[in-house]
C-alpha cells in the first residue's frame, strides 16, 4: 500500500469551482493528509462554500490574514466600524454576500480555533512566513499571518532541516516571475499563485510525496499537473526588496 500523500493548497480566496477541479484531479483518499495555508475566504464569489467544504471534511487549515480580518470585524465582542471597513475593502464584501450576510457562529468559532502553523516534520506550514530575528515562541499573528519583506529577504534558512511552505504573497509580484509559477527562497517555498487576480487566475496545490504541482485556472477552467522542479522559480534574496515595493504600489499583495 502506498504511503499517504501530503497535499498542500495555496490561498483559495473563495474560488470553490477551481478548488473542486483540483480535488477531482488529485483525488485524495481518506488516508491522505490535506492542508490549506489559510485565506480560504474573500475576493472570490463562494467563500461560504469553501469554508463549508474544508470544515465538513475536517481538513487541516491555518489561520490566514483574511480569516483574521474577518474575525476582527465580525467575530469579536466589541463592534468596530473601522475594522469592518478594512475587511470589506480587502475582499470581505464578497464573503458577506456568499453568506447572504449571515455568517454562522459555527464558522466563526472554527476560524477562531485555526492554528497559526503546522509542523509536519520535514515541512513547516504557515500562512505568511516567520520573523527570522525571533524564536517561534515569541511570534504570533502579526508575523505568521502578515509578514513579507523581513522573511523573504533573509539570506539564510530559518530551519536547518525543515522547508517552510507559505501562501499570502502572490508569486508573480516577485521579480521576473511569470503568473502561475511558484517561488522558492532560502528554506522556503511560496505557493500562492494569485487565484483571484486577473493577471494570474491559477489556484495551486502541491503534492509533497511525488513533488508534483496541480493547478486549476479560474477563468479558462484549465487543469494541469507538472513536476515541482518545472513549476518553481528560485529567487535570490537580493532581488526581493525591489519587487515587493513594486507589488505594494500596484496593490497586488493580499
UniProtKB/TrEMBL annotation:
GO terms for cellular component: cytoplasm. Signal peptide: none annotated. Transmembrane segments: none annotated. Residues 7-169 form the Calcineurin-like phosphoesterase domain. It comes from the Bacteria. GO terms for biological process: RNA decapping. Pfam families: Metallophos (PF00149). InterPro entries: Ap4A_hydrolase, Calcineurin-like_PHP, Metallo-depent_PP-like. GO terms for molecular function: bis(5'-nucleosyl)-tetraphosphatase (symmetrical) activity; phosphatase activity. This is Sll1387 protein. It comes from Synechocystis sp. (strain ATCC 27184 / PCC 6803 / Kazusa).
Amino acid at each position: 500500500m502506498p504511503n499517504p500523500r501530503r497535499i498542500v493548497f495555496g490561498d483559495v480566496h473563495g474560488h470553490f469551482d477551481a478548488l473542486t477541479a483540483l480535488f477531482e484531479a488529485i483525488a485524495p483518499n481518506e488516508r491522505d493528509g490535506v492542508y490549506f495555508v489559510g485565506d480560504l475566504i474573500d475576493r472570490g464569489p463562494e467563500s461560504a462554500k469553501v469554508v463549508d467544504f474544508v470544515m465538513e471534511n475536517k481538513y487541516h487549515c491555518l489561520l490566514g490574514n483574511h480569516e483574521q480580518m474577518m474575525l476582527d470585524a465580525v467575530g469579536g465582542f466589541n463592534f468596530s466600524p473601522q475594522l469592518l471597513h478594512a475587511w470589506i475593502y480587502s475582499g470581505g464584501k464578497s464573503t458577506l454576500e456568499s453568506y447572504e450576510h449571515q455568517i454562522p457562529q459555527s464558522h466563526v468559532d472554527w476560524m477562531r480555533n485555526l492554528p497559526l502553523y503546522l509542523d509536519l516534520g520535514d515541512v513547516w506550514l504557515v500562512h505568511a512566513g516567520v520573523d527570522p530575528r525571533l524564536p517561534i515562541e515569541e511570534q504570533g499573528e502579526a508575523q505568521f499571518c502578515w509578514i513579507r519583506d523581513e522573511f523573504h529577504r533573509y539570506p539564510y534558512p530559518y530551519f536547518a532541516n525543515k522547508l517552510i511552505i507559505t501562501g499570502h504573497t502572490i508569486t508573480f509580484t516577485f521579480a521576473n516571475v511569470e503568473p502561475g509559477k511558484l517561488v522558492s527562497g532560502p528554506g522556503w517555498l511560496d505557493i500562492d499563485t494569485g487565484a483571484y487576480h486577473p493577471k494570474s487566475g491559477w489556484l495551486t496545490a502541491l503534492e509533497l510525496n511525488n513533488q508534483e504541482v496541480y493547478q486549476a485556472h479560474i477563468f479558462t477552467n484549465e487543469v494541469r499537473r507538472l513536476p515541482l522542479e518545472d513549476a518553481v522559480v528560485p529567487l535570490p534574496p537580493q532581488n526581493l526588496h525591489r519587487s515587493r515595493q513594486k507589488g505594494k504600489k500596484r496593490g497586488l499583495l493580499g
